[in-house]
Design brief:
Layout lengths: L1 H13 L3 H20 L7 H14 L22 H10 L5 H25 L10 H6 L3 H5 L6 H21 L3 H14 L9 H15 L4 H4 L3 H18 L7 H19 L1 H16 L4 H18 L1 H17 L3 H8 L1 H5 L5 H8 L1 H8 L4 H26 L5 H18 L5 H4 L3 H18 L1
């Protein structure tokens, strides 16, 4: 560990290579802009800050205002790691900017780790410059380094997981599996979407053992760690809320996004609003959270089953957005345009209502310069996507490399589904760059 930390600081601080100089200047520019304009929050940020304050001041794990009527779902809506990180960092300096500074350091470390993985996979060091255009034309990396959100933290854990599997594949040392599963536990405690990954992760580890024809119980025991974390959090929520579950955010997304946008696509705004508001109203009348959760799930699945095709299209569109979306919301939030535009009639609304035609309808309303930038970002996202496809389909790239590098990407793309957008792809942005660059290098070799 000390050698890796020394190597990181040596490459980042001592070498002052032109590449790192540019990367540092880009981060400094975004950080300086945020200091000047102080737009540190998006909609979800306040709940993490409130949760951190409630834990510290009241000893209560609740992400809502304690002076308002209690909403039971707020007891498990947000995962614990980020609010505890906020508490720890703000104990050093009581300012939100200490969290932002820390996240910028994480972003720099993640870029260093990206380059380390490329090096381990044999990517030529003289071509590391290829990273720069992907970084420059993916502003979400720098934007979320300067917003109070969990994405950069999750990105670091996922990237560390991949690094540890690459090292395990090459060195066959059990310590890398313990590192991998430890990081997976931290990822699960950072965002609820990762708790299901314990299952495909188990399949990945089993595949690695099968391909290497080597299995030791000391190596394999670490696989139980993420299951213990999920079980522990689920039981804790059951004690507090009456039903075993990891996070209430899943039910919220099922109603407010999956069901709403499926109905919007098939039946229009008035019908979608009526159904979703009606389900929410009836659920709120129930005193027991377990009954509310069961009712919402039953009603949503009923409506989704009646609009299967609409949901299927929405899910496929979401997967496409996951890879291609240029991050209009991210950019507009950072620049302060989102507040001027208002809520409820953003790109997702037009896209869900009119499909790809809606994207053009929305873009017609936007400033030409920002539209041009968004188009450039989308082009580079498309290049990453095509590079990933080439990497995945190339016969001379080992199946082990494909599984290790592509599994987290495909998992998040499929699980995110209708919510697919630039922000949700951010945790695997370095992996997309890695597979794209490796795919492009293979394509160049075969020309």
């Amino acid at each position: 560990m000390q050698k890796r930390i020394h190597s990181f600081y040596q490459s980042l601080i001592l070498s002052f290579s032109p590449l790192w100089t540019i990367v540092l200047l880009i981060h400094a520019g975004y950080f300086g802009y945020q200091i000047a304009h102080q737009r540190l929050e998006v909609a979800d940020s306040s709940e993490f800050l409130i949760l951190a304050d409630n834990i510290q001041q009241h000893g209560t794990y609740y992400c809502g205002d304690l002076n308002q009527p209690i909403r039971t779902d707020y007891y498990s809506k947000r995962s614990p790691l980020y609010p505890f990180l906020i508490i720890a960092l703000k104990s050093l300096w009581d300012s939100d900017f200490v969290v932002i500074l820390f996240q910028n350091l994480i972003s720099l470390f993640n870029i260093w780790l990206l380059l380390q993985i490329l090096s381990l996979k044999g990517f030529p060091s003289e071509k590391r410059w290829w990273l720069l255009p992907f970084l420059l034309f993916y502003p979400a990396q720098l934007i979320y380094a300067n917003l109070l959100m969990t994405e950069l933290l999750l990105q670091g854990f996922i990237l560390g997981m991949v690094w540890s599997l690459v090292k395990f594949d090459s060195e066959k040392k059990g310590k890398y599996l313990w590192i991998y599963h430890g990081l997976l536990c931290l990822a699960i405690l950072t965002k609820p979407v990762m708790y299901v990954y314990a299952v495909p992760s188990l399949a990945t580890i089993g595949f690695l053992f099968w391909k290497s024809h080597r299995f030791r119980w000391g190596h394999g025991l670490s696989v139980i760690l993420p299951f213990l974390v999920v079980l522990g959090v689920g039981k804790w929520n059951q004690q507090r809320m009456g039903t075993f579950h990891y996070s209430s955010i899943q039910i919220i997304n099922l109603l407010q996004y999956n069901t709403y946008y499926s109905l919007l696509s098939d039946e229009g705004t008035a019908y979608a609003d009526s159904v979703v508001d009606g389900i929410a109203y009836q659920a709120d009348e129930m005193a027991d959270y377990a009954a509310r959760e069961s009712f919402i799930q039953t009603q949503c699945l009923h409506h989704l089953s009646a609009h299967k095709w609409a949901y299927f299209k929405l899910h496929l569109k979401g997967i496409g957005n996951f890879f291609i979306d240029p991050g209009r919301f991210d950019l507009y939030t950072f620049l302060g345009r989102e507040k001027r535009e208002g809520k409820g009639r953003g790109l997702l609304y037009y896209y869900s209502k009119e499909g790809y035609t809606g994207i053009f309808s929305y873009l017609k309303l936007q400033p030409l310069g920002l539209v041009f930038l968004l188009v450039l970002i989308a082009i580079f996202n498309l290049i990453k996507f095509l590079g990933m496809l080439y990497f995945g389909l190339h016969r001379r790239i080992s199946l082990i490399d494909k599984v290790i590098l592509l599994a987290p990407i495909l998992y998040l793309a499929v699980l995110t589904g209708p919510l697919g957008a630039s922000r949700f792809a951010l945790p695997v942005f370095p992996l997309l760059v890695i597979v794209a660059l490796l795919g492009m290098e293979k394509w160049r070799e075969n020309k």
